[in-house]
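tool_call: predict_structure(chain=1)
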Amino acid sequence: MKNVHELLQEQVLLFDGGMGTYYSPASGIECEQANLADPKAILKIHQEYRQAGAQAIKTNTFGLGRMAAAGQNRWQELLEAGWNLACQAAGEECVVFADIGPAPDTEATPAEQVYKEISEKFLQLGARCFLFETLSSDAGIAQTAAWIKAQCPDSFILVSFAVQPDGFTREGLRCRILAQRMEECGTVDAVGLNCVSAPSAMSALFSEFTGIRLPLAFMPNAGYPVVTRSRVVYQGKPDYFAREMCTLRHKGAAILGGCCGTTPAHIAALRYALENTPMPIAPARRDISALQEPSLVPAQDPFLLRLQEGKKVIAVELDSPKEADLTGYLEGARRLQAAGADAVTIADCPIARARMDSSLVACKLRRELGITALPHMTCRDRNLNATKALLLGLYAEGVREVLAITGDPIPTAERDEVKNVYQFNSRKLAQYIASLSGRELPGPMTVFGALNLNVRNFAVELRRTQEKVANGMSGFLTQPIHSAAALENLRQAREVLGPQVKLLAGILPVVSHRNAVFMENEINGIHLDEELIRRYEGLDRAQGEELALQISLETARQALPYADGFYLMTPFNRVGLMERLIHALRQDLLS
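tool_result:
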């Protein structure tokens, strides 16, 4: 049979459908495990898809990436069995694609390492066509594609991303940007979408690929899943699926197929429709080289204007209340504003303990006091849809700055009752917010991040901070400075990041010996020198506050050459202490 490069010059390439959802309902065996435990059933399904008209068959190996990343050696046996079954079913009629699903991307085991290990095994078996599918990011893909091409120059590599109907992956990456990266890397032969979305939603996303000159692939689900008792079913009918897929073909798609919920009946209907539906004259693809991502120009509010003009600013963190009464909170924020605070920041349930929502409080502050309110936004316990909904609401309320942080994990003892949601980290959240600007958000939002000056290996922290800048963060609020090491790390950060990246030095007044010991032992990201802790021994409340004010001013004076301002954290809701600190900073350092 002709190779895929030649085939695509003549006609659309039709893939098979969803192996996992077609096999699973009738068995209690995990799909990939069935390559060894139930090979006759897997072979039969491959044959059914071929008989339905599929020209490309995927190996039943989608989930092996996670097994390989976890060090489970049996993945190699399952992969070889899956390859042999697909080849047996394909014969001379179909192309066999080595199917590789997403692999976890961690520092210990990068996705690139896993992808290359799996690809090498497939190459040894004779694979020439590779499908990387259902990806939520492109981590390791370009490097793996280049490695495959070096081993096998005539290979064909298709990369397919899984996106929501709004065009974003579960990690907040926009499919247009991902497609551009795949084209620019020069070693990917085709790019497209699969899974998550139904046919009509995928058709609506075709415009995201305007200007992409690689062959485009679309393999949607049969519809959206419906849970009936213990089963998940897809109710999309084959004739509807075929009709919508023909629309994609008419728009210019070169590769079609199905994902979850699609059966041989769906592929047969699509094969018939493709052969019996006349092709209209395809419109020329519009170049989008001029359609760049909107730049992160800060909104014109006093806080950001002061930063842009090189003036030192003061942001004060004031934790939202634990109960539904904002009376005292608003009064405290009003006093901080009158004392000279440029912004109030609100933590998002610090230490994973529930407080009034930081974004709602920020909107209230903005409306009633007119002060810049900077809500912290964690990636914990909020999925992509909830995050987007919150951002839209913040923008509508005039809140145009957020502090993006990954968030504290929920304490272990509670995990049986409350499940953490970490769909992305702070870097991906920042990139997601930036990609919304100019689309769902009429203008940009400024994204700040956290910089931990107290970690043992600050070189790693600094490298991650540079990644955050590359992903759209324009400034950082640091963890509190309570040691000479933290101060030195701030100096390094200024030197490496340069003047364009704004740094607010963290100042957290320590008000007692008990407070100092607690923070050193129980608060993540904070370190206090032993000498500092000893200075609080035997002091009463008034003496503790006086020492806290003195040390905070000393710290601020030392940090001033490297900082664009200060991030003050209010201990135990002691607004009076913070008023005194703000006045002193304004008079002694910022006058």
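agent: The mean pLDDT is 89. Proceeding to next step.
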